[in-house]
Amino acid sequence: MIEHVIFDLDGTLTDPAMGITNSVMYALRKMGEPVAQREAYYPWIGPSLIGSFMEFAGMSEERATEAVRCYREYFSVKGLFENEPYAGIEEVLLSLQKAGKGVYLATSKPEEFAVPILEHFGLSKYFTCICGNTIANLRPEKEDVIRYLLSLYPCISPENAVMVGDRKFDCLGAEKFGIKTIGVLYGYGTKDELTEAGAISLAADTAALKKLLLE
Fold first, then answer.
1. 205 belongs to the catalytic site
2. Each residue of 74-97: pLDDT tens digit?
3. What is the percent of the chain where pLDDT is above 70?
4. Which of 2, 28, 58, 128 could serve as 33's disulfide partner, Cβ 3.0–4.6 Å?
């Protein structure tokens, strides 16, 4: 029985495309890199930023670290709230709360950004705990964030918990601890990506997600 639900943030609770892509393009311009059309940066939604600058822009780790600093110049002021909750997601969270479920956040975004985003949209009140990376990049991967969450809440186990996310990183991070994942198709991952990463179920929209979690 599901007693604890761990949510990803970007692409699962909120659609951050405008803020993230604006921040990426701002950083690339500051770093003297070419900038493509916005859609080219959708794959950056989900994985760690340093990894994305290294993989997608061909930067060294040192240069990628500087690019993340530039990214945050924009994101911390404007990009943070160039974002919106998915239709119906608050109803999902409210229903879980009413059912007595523990609701947690595990995001690769620093907590310093995740907390004000959820507060801004009135969603933080539904969460038992909000866990993320740090500005110092101490928990860069989803696996690191989930490990931290489990250290705080040992009551969460593979038998009573599920992860909800839109990218393979959510599935693979949760799998490290034996926790299964429900993949959402309204975010930025594909059906094939989520299935190949081991998602046990797929939700086309928030109504379907609510049904999977509660029924």
1. no
2. 999 999 999 999 999 999 999 999
3. 100
4. 28
Where is the domain boundary, 34, 49, 81?
Answer: 81
pTM above 0.85, yes or no: yes
pLDDT tens digit string along 151-195?
Answer: 999 999 999 999 999 999 999 999 999 999 999 999 999 999 999
pLDDT for the residue 46? 87
- Taking a C-beta distance cutoff of 8 angstroms, is the pair 172, 143 a contact? yes
Cβ distance 118 to 105 under 8 Å?
yes
CATH number of the domain encompassing residue 173: 3.40.50.1000
- Domain of 124 in residue numbering reads as 4-15+83-214
- Using the structure block, give the residue that is written with the tokens 């943070």: 80
The enclosing domain of 47 has a CATH number of 1.10.150.240
